[in-house]
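Extended Data, panel c. Modelled sequence:
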Amino acid sequence: MYFVAAVLAILSALFYAAGNQEIGTLGVEMCRYGSTFCRSPTYVLAGAILAALWGAFVSVR
């Protein structure tokens, strides 16, 4: 679950950069298919936080 949280956090950063036109043509393609996430990358970040919390909750030590 921590892996999923890390991937979502990276995607959140990419959507933030794409929404601010900082990564060129890749950002244009990302915003074409995921315009909601380009406008509000906090949705993806919230998913990352929830995944990390869930991973901490269910981890067995």
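The longest helix spans residues 2-19. This feature is highlighted in the accompanying rendering.
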